[in-house]
Structures are given as C-alpha cells and as structure tokens.
Amino acid sequence: MKEVAMNQTEINENVERVMLSGEQIGKRVKEVAAQLNKLYEGRRPLVVCILKGSVIFFTDLIRHMDMPLEIDFMAVSSYGNGTKSGQLKVTKDLTTDISGRDVLIVEDIIDSGNTLYNLKKLLNSRSPASVNIVTLLDKPERREVPMEPEYTCFVIEDEFVVGYGMDYAEEFRNLPYIGVLKRSVYEK
C-alpha cells in the first residue's frame, strides 16, 4: 500500500498548523516499539490502551512489538473541584488479572500527570511484576505531580493538539497528523 503525501490543502480548516506529520509519528512509534521489544524480550506483557485517545497510537505501537502479548482496555479520568484534577475515576476497568504480570500502559498525552500518577498507583496495588508507561506526547511544563513516563515519543510545547486519536469535543480524532487546534474553536 502506497502512502499518499499530505499537502497544505489537506489540513483541516480548524487546525492552525501541523505539529507532527503522520510520517514523523510512524517513524518514532517504530523506534519506541524497538525499545519495548528489548525491554520485554522473553516476556509476555499486558499492553493496556487508555481509551479513547490512545487507540490509534496503541494499534500502531503493538503492530511493531515483536513478542507474544495480551491487550486490555481502560477508560479513566481525573476529576476534582473546578478545573483542578484530583481523584481517579475508572469508567472501564481491566478484565485481566495483572497479579505478577508486566503491564505497559499506553497513553496519548500527559500534561498535569494526575491521571497517570493515580492510575499507576492503582495498578501497582494489584501486585503486578512491573508497570511502565509509554506516551505519544508529553507536556512536562504542565506537570502538577511527580510523574514521568518511562517511554515518550515526543515532548511538545503547551498547545491544544488534536488528531491521531486525540480530540476536541469528540471531533478530529481521525486526522492523520497531530495538529494545533485554532484558539477560535475552543474559546467560543
């Protein structure tokens, strides 16, 4: 299958600019998968997709992981008073017992770190052999808690990004790139 190059006319009208092209993302996902192949060599990790934004990244990543693995899904968020996130809310939990298992959490983006900080704490309470996090995007300048993923594809500036699974009001997930959303869209 031949990949078609994206030109400027294909950029969504609500996107200010393309931050990462599909080609850049694909190359980096393969590189990170190669690191994970070394980490989990001879083991059978449980790879956990955090719904919904991570689905595309998760799918591309596991296709490049050359080992037996299992998959599962979680839907989680942090919530609190006002705009501050705090407690973890699990709306879809794992169906797999992780006791004694190597668990790899696949996330689309980390900013405050609250959700993954609390999720990692929750999963560690279930006695896994290990819990590691791989994220597509990391915004460390927004961090509110001491949370660093073990594997990161891209560190980005503090911009509102969409595409490659990430959304604004459930739109833009299917864009084949990561773009910066125009302020006029989300500041209505």
Question: Could you please describe the fold and organization of this structure?
Answer:
There is one protein chain. By secondary structure, this protein is α/β, with parallel strands linked by helices. It has four helices and nine strands; from the N terminus they run βαβαβββαββββα. Strand 3 (70-79) and strand 4 form a beta hairpin. Helix 1 (22-39) packs across helix 2. The protein is globular, with a radius of gyration of 17 Å. The strands form two sheets. It has a six-stranded mixed sheet.
**Number of E-type strands:** 9
What is the strand arrangement across the widest sheet?
4-3-2-5-6-7
Give the % helix: 10-25%
Shape: globular
Assembly context of the chains? single chain
Beta content = 25-35%
Topology order in helix (H) and strand (E) letters: EHEHEEEHEEEEH
Span between termini: 40 Å
Radius of gyration: 17 Å
Largest sheet: 6 strands, mixed
Sequence-ordered SSE layout with sheet pairings:
Layout: E1 15-20, H1 22-39, E2 46-51, H2 55-63, E3 70-79, E4 87-92, E5 102-110, H3 114-124, E6 130-138, E7 151-155, E8 161-162, E9 178-181, H4 183-186
Parallel strand pairs: 2-3, 2-5, 5-6, 6-7
Antiparallel strand pairs: 1-9, 3-4, 8-9
Helix pairs in contact: 1-2
What key phrases describe this protein's structure?
9 strands, 6-stranded mixed beta sheet, 188 residues, single chain, 3-stranded antiparallel beta sheet, globular, alpha/beta
